[in-house]
Design goal:
39% helix; single chain; DNA-binding transcriptional activator of the allD operon; mainly alpha; DNA-binding; two-stranded antiparallel sheet
Length: 46
């Protein structure tokens, strides 16, 4: 069996892959690269 790629979105047995970890880091650190996304989706409407 071929080993899972470290860039996979998720691994069935090992949890998230590198791509998901990088995306989560962008959001948890509120990086400028995702500021446009956060402006649209990040603020709940009252």
């Amino acid at each position: 069996m071929r080993p899972p790629s470290p860039l996979s979105l998720a691994w069935r047995k090992f949890g998230s892959g590198k791509a998901v970890e990088d995306i989560v880091t962008l959001f948890t650190q509120r990086r400028p690269e995702i500021s446009g996304f956060l402006e649209i989706f990040g603020n709940p409407r009252s």
